[in-house]
Amino acid sequence: MQRNLKLASTIKRINRLFTVWVMVVFLMCQNPTRGFDEEDLRDLRSSNICFGCDLSGADLREVQLVKANLAESNLGKAQFAGANLSFAILKHTDLRNADFWGATLFNTDLRYTDSRNSNFSFANLRQSDLSFSNFRGAEMGAANLRGARLFQVDLQGANLHRVNLADTDLRKADLRNANLKDANFTGAIRCNTQMPWGEDNSGCAE
To answer: What H or E segment, with its residue span, contains residue 199?
Structure first.
């Protein structure tokens, strides 16, 4: 008899736990976590300004965001492939794992961004300012950065295959372990620049 009572009590506890688990799963399905704020997205589309927004994971492929202000926003995992962000302000933004494949970012302010593991392959970044940013592990193959400012930028482990770095400011930049195959450094300023083969001071002013 006592053994039956213990078994019945155990079954009741298991049933209660199962019921709680089912309720939790149901509530999670009814209230899915969004990757971005819909209101922030509407603000951006209506005014071209979204300071401090949460647009993480948003689909913004091929959108026109010329001169947009997205400073201090969360743009992690956002899709910007083919978008035009020329003259935009993206400083202090979170761009981790964001996709800018083939995007146009001419003269764009990208200072102090966290762009780790982002994708800027085939992007046009001419004359943009990437200073003080973290681009560790970023994919930047065949990107055009001619005339860009990369002062003290962290490019460790980045893929810079066939990237155009002509006339760039690479002072104090860190390119250790980066893939520099067929990269163009014509006219680039290198001073206290960490290259895969060591420190490069070939461009230091006398």
So the answer is: strand 198-200
Q: Which of 168, 161, 163, 159 is nearest to 200 (CA)?
A: 168
| Predicted pLDDT of residue 64 | 96
Token pair 């002072």: residue: 171
pLDDT score at 205: 82
Task: Residue 160: name the closest of 200, 173, 171, 172 by CA.
Answer: 173
Answer for the pair 80, 103: CB distance below 8 angstroms, yes or no: yes
Please write down the HEC assignment for all residues of 65-77: CCCCECCCCECCC
Using an 8 Å Cβ cutoff, are 139 and 156 in contact? no
Query: Containing H/E element for 193?
Result: strand 193-195
pTM (two decimals)? 0.82
Q: Dump pLDDT digits (tens) for 33-46.
A: 456 788 888 889 89
Helix (H) or strand (E) holding 4: helix 2-30
Return the DSSP state at 150: -
